Structure formats: structure tokens, C-alpha cells
């Protein structure tokens, strides 16, 4: 899930397994969603694009999880 710019820092997750990604997104959103913008993407390439966008927009990225 990708949201528009937010003042909250970003937690970014990349995982190509849709089931695992859904579980991780749900867990992170439930636990940290009030204080962080949780972004979960299905590929490393999409995540790199999102990181570049965050940088361009001046957003803080607090955590990146890349699952192999």
C-alpha cells in the first residue's frame, strides 16, 4: 500500500510473497500505524522508487525491511 506524503516517518517493507507481505503490513500497521506511515511493496525495484520519492519529498525513512 502506498499513501501520499505524510508528516509521519516511513516504515518501508519489500517482499515478493503476497501472503507474507499482507501479514507484515497488518502487523506493522496495527502496532505502529499511528506514528508511522507503513509502506509495503512487492519488489525491491518498487521500493527503490519509493525511497527516491521519499527523499525528493523530504520524508524521513525510519526502517527498511527487505525480505529475500
Report the biggest beta sheet as strand number plus sense, adding barrel if it closes. Answer: 3 strands, parallel
- Strand arrangement, major sheet: 2-1-3
SSE order, as H and E? EHEHE
The low-confidence runs, each spanning 5 or more residues with pLDDT under 50, are none
Q: What's the alpha carbon Rg, rounded to whole Å?
A: 11 Å
Work out the number of β strands.
Answer: 3
Shape descriptor = flat
- Put simply, the count of helices is 2
- Helix proportion range: 40-55%
Distance between the termini: 19 Å
In round numbers, the mean pLDDT is: 90
Share of β-strand residues: 15-25%
From the helix content, strand content and strand pairing, which structural class follows?
alpha/beta
Protein architecture, described:
The protein has 68 residues and is of the alpha/beta class. The protein has a domain at 20-59. 43% of the residues lie in helices and 24% in strands. The protein is built from 2 helices and 3 strands. The chain has helices at 18-32, 44-57, and strands at 10-14, 37-41, 61-66. It has a 3-stranded parallel beta sheet, sandwiched between helices. The radius of gyration is 11 Å and the shape is flat. The mean pLDDT is 90.
State the main characteristics.
68 residues; alpha/beta; 3-stranded parallel beta sheet; 2 helices; 3 strands; 43% helix
Summarize the structure.
This protein is of the alpha/beta class and 68 residues long.
Which secondary structure elements does this structure contain, and how are they paired or packed?
Elements: E1 10-14, H1 18-32, E2 37-41, H2 44-57, E3 61-66
Parallel strand pairs: 1-2, 1-3
Amino acid at each position: 500500500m502506498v499513501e501520499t506524503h505524510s508528516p509521519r516517518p516511513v516504515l518501508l517493507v519489500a517482499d515478493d510473497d503476497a501472503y507474507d507481505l499482507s501479514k507484515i503490513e497488518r502487523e506493522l500497521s496495527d502496532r505502529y500505524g499511528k506514528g508511522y506511515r507503513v509502506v509495503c511493496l512487492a519488489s525491491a525495484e518498487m521500493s527503490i522508487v519509493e525511497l527516491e520519492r521519499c527523499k525528493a519529498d523530504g520524508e524521513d525513512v525510519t526502517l527498511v525491511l527487505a525480505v529475500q
